[in-house]
From TrEMBL, chains A, B:
Residues 2-247 form the Prephenate/arogenate dehydrogenase domain. GO terms for molecular function: NAD+ binding; prephenate dehydrogenase (NAD+) activity; prephenate dehydrogenase (NADP+) activity. Keywords: Oxidoreductase. This is Prephenate dehydrogenase/arogenate dehydrogenase family protein. GO terms for biological process: tyrosine biosynthetic process. The keyword Flavoprotein does not apply. The keyword Oxidoreductase applies.
Amino acid sequence: MKRLGLVGLGQFGQLAARTLKDHFDVVATDAAPDAPARASAAGVAYASLEEVAGCEIVVVAVPVAVMREVFGQIAPLVKPGALVIDVGSVKVLPVTWMQELLPAHVEIVATHPLFGPQSVARDGLPGLRFVVCPVRGERFEKVAAFGRSLGLAVTVTTAEEHDREMAYVQALTHLIGRSLVNLGIPDEELATPSYQHLLELCGLIRNDTFELFAAIQTQNPYAPEVAKAFVAQAQSLLEQVASGKTA
Amino acid sequence: MKRLGLVGLGQFGQLAARTLKDHFDVVATDAAPDAPARASAAGVAYASLEEVAGCEIVVVAVPVAVMREVFGQIAPLVKPGALVIDVGSVKVLPVTWMQELLPAHVEIVATHPLFGPQSVARDGLPGLRFVVCPVRGERFEKVAAFGRSLGLAVTVTTAEEHDREMAYVQALTHLIGRSLVNLGIPDEELATPSYQHLLELCGLIRNDTFELFAAIQTQNPYAPEVAKAFVAQAQSLLEQVASGKTA
């Protein structure tokens, strides 16, 4: 089995460790004080950043907010011919950082697994969406094939196209959902099917942190435009109604 | 069978005619030139407004926009002891108009059937929601019992409570849905369950007219407040994110 180094043992990193250990010889690291315990809980070996970054395949599973820093840390440690993969939920910024900071002698693939421990625990991996963006070299094909071998629904696309879609899929849903949650919309007896969709959207994002919300709105370069266009549209509709216009 | 006069043979009026003719001796009228044909298509007798308004039970099924005028027209025609019922999708305004315009010698019940020909054709009447608001006299109990005998899910409440709930259930969903439709949100390959809710909301309201939208936003006294609060909330969230605040 190839040796795979995993940087980051947060919620998604631990899921990655548990999934990848059947297919690779996984060593993992994390800056958290309890990193060795997390590695052990996920059934993989704990190692230093040096050792992890020196593997044939290096998977970076840290929050986008600290990703640039982590790429800078592993840049002098990665071996010629290695493959570096990120799993961030936006793609334009991580791709820019990897191209800028990682030495020319490594290949690069950017990915976005559109799932987390909850969805995997509930439904299993098969059918879940996995986005693969070619960045440097041809090994994105192996990454896509590996995803398919796990039963994932793989989409190969560019970082720009990914973020453009996600501006709708993530930024807009979280803006609307969080606004409704903050408004405290009531679970009305008179709910219609349309209103049920709003209530269920609230249920899906009710427990997300403000930090996640801010990340979704700021780390995707296309998000502000879509979010602002939605608010402007709603405002314009209310103005049309108030002015008695009929268009 | 009691004689029931139906004022209005639009989409909902025709559905009402087809439903009520098995339980009442229905005569119907409408200002449209093809009113006799509409009555005949619904299987009920066409009659003048005088004859219709003179029935033991009078159901007013006209758009809220012309309802005040219609109450004024039938006011001198209704018989002592008659029961007048409206079926508008808002309740505060029709109730105010009925109390103001209809003579003290008639009883009044306001209703809102939360369904139309499409939902009935698809699912049948049983389980559909029917709101009954007592206005004048005790016959709301008979109206509620009749709704239950058709299998409808009957809610007895006040006009104010109805409109307060509907400000969320209708005004908010139509504001969000219409904004998304106008924005042209794409059916993305990377759609998540949250985004699916927005796409399905768009599907449900895509074909509604601007007139219906304006009516929902203006004929419910509680709608502007809820709609504005939503837009203000979304705007405030985007400002918080832009300013880098974390609350």
